[in-house]
Request: fold
Amino acid sequence: MTPDPARFLSDLHHLRSFGAAGHGVMRRAFSEPDVAAREWLVAQIEAIGLTAHVDPAGNVFGLAKGRSLLIGSHSDTQPEGGWLDGAYGVIAALEIARAAVEAGGPAISMVSFQDEEGRFGALTGSDLWAGRTTLAEADGFAATDGLTFGQARQGLAHLMQEDFVDPARFTGFLEMHIEQGPVLDQVGESVGVVTSIVGLRQIQVTVTGQQNHAGTTPMAMRQDAFQGAARIAGLLNERFANVVTPQTVWTIGHMQLHPNASSIVPGRAVFTIQWRDGDADRLDRMERVIDEVLTDVAAETGMQVEADRLRHDLTPVPMDEGMQAALRAAAEVHAPGRWRSMPSGALHDASNVSHLMPVGMLFVPSIGGISHDFAEDTGEADLVTGLKVLAAAADALAPR
Amino acid sequence: MTPDPARFLSDLHHLRSFGAAGHGVMRRAFSEPDVAAREWLVAQIEAIGLTAHVDPAGNVFGLAKGRSLLIGSHSDTQPEGGWLDGAYGVIAALEIARAAVEAGGPAISMVSFQDEEGRFGALTGSDLWAGRTTLAEADGFAATDGLTFGQARQGLAHLMQEDFVDPARFTGFLEMHIEQGPVLDQVGESVGVVTSIVGLRQIQVTVTGQQNHAGTTPMAMRQDAFQGAARIAGLLNERFANVVTPQTVWTIGHMQLHPNASSIVPGRAVFTIQWRDGDADRLDRMERVIDEVLTDVAAETGMQVEADRLRHDLTPVPMDEGMQAALRAAAEVHAPGRWRSMPSGALHDASNVSHLMPVGMLFVPSIGGISHDFAEDTGEADLVTGLKVLAAAADALAPR
Reply:
């Protein structure tokens, strides 16, 4: 089977027109442009000769007959999103499924999941399909404007079927996506074969000191919550050094001081510590380092240091070995010497789908590492290379 | 002359009744309780036989005949203030002026300045008297609720005179105040003779890094603005060590990260650095350390680090040597071994008055260092000791 790069790029730019905003796209889940884009996808699926199935979550499937390999991603965007994000993987799946039909095989189905970008939940469409959330729960999820998922999905009621697609139809799932990070772009490579989607843990730390006048309180009598937070940040950098790999990341991205006034010694600092790695054992070891640092800073400063888990942990999701091997082989054919194996630092629908079947993922570069921004882009040659690698791997993996 | 502790405490509790709120007081400048309190003060002044003079700023003077020593503070409070703050110094001045009249000398006048707590400006009443702001400027100052100083001061129009009191009437100014810090309380002493009101400098620092996805951006490729800010805080602590005294303070009290989200590497951190000391040369040396630290962190991290002055510097204000000597001598009589010389870390009306005449200040302990809070308090024995020390020093300093 031979995907057609020109047809693929044409479709990719057509999808971009739904919600186009300058270089970027505004196509949140169940917005008018999103509904229009899904109607257009259904028409493309039917034109290929696949069976369209829009499930109660708004996920749009194009189903081959019998057992098949599923390929896809998501076509909803952030409020001010890039034009490629999930759209790239959806249109690549459409083109490969079409090429497979034209070639008389193999059996390839496609999907565009809904609300990956979390207007209502987080990865809501694949979450529902994987049975990790019930429709009754999801219907209560509210967007920041108050609209619920239950109300919003009525916008696709005219296309929806009552049932979800049976996952047993599929032998596995391949997702292609832009990297959304700087690695491939900086090293000048075209393709990344994903080894795992990293796990994530996050705590909220509260340092409670003593709010005081910033003029009348001598340094030796202070319990300054910001100084405690800065000390924690410094010690984490030192003590993580022996635990992490170059792929491990940790972030203090949110901080709130109280009362947050220039003339008052901060009495309280609340901040998040988030850490990600592909290895659950390493996440554990990092958590022990964090616990020690918090305990040590509390002892050293006399302040109260408390940690609360903010959300469910995300367990690392290893990609299927056979699928990685097929992607590596295809990458070496179509991008010899210009690909690498790498973890995915971002979460993807493939995480949810991994609970149903083997999954594999492929990355192409994000120029400057930019994503979730109108400026998001990838060179056209890389977009086409990704399509060819994905098609070759799908050809090797899909049932006949 | 002999001040009467019982009469003094009675008056102090009477002033407390204007705007009383539990243990504390709510008596903002020109609020109904503040106007009522100033009407009451005028009545007390006239009952003593001094001449009341309410100036256009709302400052209430009780004037002795001829050249006199001025004593006082302010009777407005924070929105949720303590009962002593400036009120203590105002009622002590009232009692000492009364005792002087009763004794037939020396010549002592008193004052309650207006809006020391900055409902409209900052130390607005003494600022206007010292000619550091014009009435036309001050009339435009607006409270957070939109009320202007010009509108608010109409509340005292029925008592106001058109002119300010001529500062040349006074040989000097003594202000007694609660410490508003923990030092005297922690060391168990009753009186502090103020050596200087510390100077204050403040800058706002902006660290500009690169906003990135907290999962997909390897640590080595990050420009994390919070990490830059934490590094600056740590280096300041190290490098100030050789420059400061135990009385020097510095504070990072306000910080804002952007976009301040747990899953995003902060692209920008904006925070204040404020430092205070009684010695202008030391303030200079600290500023050079800060400049070096900012330059070094910019070089080390590749991030942009900019500093802006947020407000006018406050120059350290040394207290008059003769007045300090009189206060020390009086302290040794009425609180032998239980007093110390110390700087004032907080700003006071005496700073403004120092531009007009020699000034001196006396502190009594704040229990737990607490001020600007309903819980603010001082032991009654210390309140009386302060009164006696102040009266003895005034007796020695005032013209006859």
Observations:
- The CA atoms of residues 206 and 306 of chain A lie 5 Å apart.
